[in-house]
Structures are given as structure tokens and as C-alpha cells.
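2 proteins. here.
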Amino acid sequence: MLLCALGLFAYVAIRSATIDITIDEAYSWKFFSYGPHLYPQKYDVTTANDHWLNSWLVQLTGGVFGPRNWALRLPNVLAFAVYLFFTARFVLSFRARWYTLAAFLLLNVHPYLLDFFSAERGYGLAFGAMSACIFFLFRFSGSLARKDLCFFLLAGCLAVLANFAVISFFMVALGMAVLLTLLSKNADRKKLLLLTVCVSVPFLAIVVPHLFHMQHSGALYYGENSLWEGTAKSVFTSLL
């Protein structure tokens, strides 16, 4: 598994340094990562290109190393290391060795998935944070430990900041964490619920208004007119 992970990481790293910058990556760099940028100053259909966490990190790597391909994509390449680590940790919970290897390959050996980690966008960062979020939610379901809950909340918030489409995933995962806490007999149940509320409510109070601003500006519906034509049909066709 280790050799497979190293090979996949090398593939993503080499790809990030050798392929040309796409128009979406160039747009994200020019308007959201080139120079100081924290929060959108205006909203239009292009605001969807501003993946906050990606914009902030690319400002750092691009500012330190310059606008080189590998430097702009470095945050997402490193996010792949995070993704590899947590998917490996998750599948190692399986007892059968062949199940472990098969599950690891299933989660990692997919060309469309790997593409996200070698692009200067928020998708790779979101996948890396989501893998950590799922892992710590899985651990929390068995331990009900405050540490696991904290890491789960942190990873979930970072995933949303990397790609706002992940908010639906985060809300479902958050509901599962609350349900696990309510159904438990843990003596610290009230403290765990309070911690969840104190982290999630202020975070959503920042993110949700931003999403409504994007909706009103047309940024959430930029592209195809339907989910089937724009996403499902194109993905199924590509897979075939």
C-alpha cells in the first residue's frame, strides 16, 4: 500500500508541474489569489471561482515561490498526501488484507479524482479535508471523544471553505455527529453538543450569507441549466 501511495503521489506531483495552466486556474490566480484577497468585494457569476481556502493558500505559495505551475498547485498536491493518509487509515480498519488493498485502490486509483489534486482549484483541498472529516466522524462514532469531535469539526469546516458545494455533505455529517451524541450515554454529552453548536453555528453564520449572495448574483447556476445535463449525463458519458 505504501508503494502504491508513493507512486500515486509522484504521479500527481509530476503532473502538477508539467501540464499547462487551464483557463479556470488562470482566472482564479489573477482575480482571487494574485495579491491580498480575503473575502469577495463584489458578487457576479464569476464569484464561484473563488474557493476561499484555495485562494488563501495559493496567495501564500504563489507569493513565496512565484507564479509557477507547481507553486500554484502545491496546496492541492499536499492535500493529496492528506487524502492518501486518511483513506489509508480508514481502510486499515478492515481485518482482511485483500479488502484493505482493494478499498484503498478503489478510493485512490481514479483518473478524474487524481486530476483534482493537480489543479489550482479548491476541489483537491476539499477532498483531502473530507477524507479527514469522514475518518474522525467514524472514530467519534466509537469513542465519543472530544478530541475526535474537534478534528471532525475542523476538517468539515475546511472542506466547506475549500469548496462551498461540500456544505450539503457537512450538514449531513454534522447531523450524524449530533445524533450519535444524543443517542449516547456519555457523561459529557451536553459538553459535546455545546462544542458542536459553538463551532458550527458561527461558521454557518459566515458561510450561508455568502451562499445567498452567490445565489442572487447567479454564481451558483453558472453553466448548464440542469443537474442531469451538466453533471450526471456528462460524467456517465465520460466513464463509458
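next one coming up
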Amino acid sequence: MEQRFVIVGGLADDHDRGNLIAALEARTVSAGLKLSWDWIKSSAREGWRPPLKYLNQLSASVDRDQKEGRQPPKLVLLRRLNKESRARVLTIDPDPVLVEPDKFSGPDLVEWLFSAEAGLTPQSEWVAETRLAAFICILAKLLRKKSWNKDKH
């Protein structure tokens, strides 16, 4: 199942929406993940207010997903957003992912969204304590040597 992410807010460098979505989708494909991205952009020209039409569509989409038992999109909240819009987003999702204050341009945001710090995407590496790693290795070796685990024709 594809996980949806919706970024809400603006960036300091007024990055182009299409370019950011294309960069996120390219990074998603290269990582072999099933993610979809959208960005409800706000800009300084509009007082950091995203278009109300898109917030209404997001709210309706989340309600519809919850009624149908699907996973609603995970919201990523940028810091450049006015108070009313921020309050509206928090009513849609009370626990969005908060991006650190004003340190991101478009490319930095893409890198951060795929980092372990953001915690949005599964990491290909895993870390375990020495004893747990040793236990898993032994268990894997035992499973490989079992007769029921071998292909016999």
C-alpha cells in the first residue's frame, strides 16, 4: 500500500512546487519505496496562507480515508505558515511531522524528508545491540540448515 505525504507551508527560497514534487518522486523511485507526495504551498506574497481550497480538499480526503478504513496521508508541517492555517492543519492531523525552523531550501527539505532524523521513510540499514545481532545471526543459520527450509525437487 502506498503511503501518502502532504507537505503544508512555504520555504524561504520560494521553491517551485513542480520541481520539489519531481525531486521527491525521483528520490522515492531510487529508494524503491511506494510513497506519494503533495505540497500545499504558501508564500510570502499571500502572507504564508495556503489556498483555502486545498486545505478543504485535504480535510475532506482525510475524513474520507478514515471512513473507508484507509490510512490518511501523513502531514509534514513547514514553519512558514500563518497561525490560522497552522491551526487548521492541526485540526486535520494533531500530530504532523514538524520541520525544523527556517533552515531548509527545496533540496535541503528533500534530503531531510528521507533522513533517519525525519523518520518518515524506512531505512535500509538496521542497528541492534551486539547480543541481539548475534542471536539473529544464529537463528538465521539454524533456519537455513533445516530440511523443511530447503527446496527439494
